[in-house]
Amino acid sequence: MIEVTVNDRLGKKVRVKCNPTDTIGDLKKLIAAQTGTRPEKLVLKKWYTIYKDAITLNDYEIHDGFNFELYYQ
């Protein structure tokens, strides 16, 4: 299990525990459960990289303590 932090820079900062084999889409569902926002409306970024739903956290080399930027679509 790894723990990642998601910050939308509007006052909402969420820490989520997930498996490295989970996809970004699975992570969005976990974030949506904590924030009350639909997962289709969430966009995860880091600098200018937009993370795609079908790719796993391992493939993106996301590790424990990673920080995402959360945007709403």
From TrEMBL:
<dbReference type="InterPro" id="IPR039732">
    <property type="entry name" value="Hub1/Ubl5"/>
</dbReference>
<feature type="domain" description="Ubiquitin-like">
    <location>
        <begin position="2"/>
        <end position="73"/>
    </location>
</feature>
<dbReference type="Pfam" id="PF00240">
    <property type="entry name" value="ubiquitin"/>
</dbReference>
<protein>
    <recommendedName>
        <fullName>Ubiquitin-like protein 5</fullName>
    </recommendedName>
</protein>
<keyword id="KW-0833">Ubl conjugation pathway</keyword>
<dbReference type="InterPro" id="IPR000626">
    <property type="entry name" value="Ubiquitin-like_dom"/>
</dbReference>
<dbReference type="InterPro" id="IPR029071">
    <property type="entry name" value="Ubiquitin-like_domsf"/>
</dbReference>
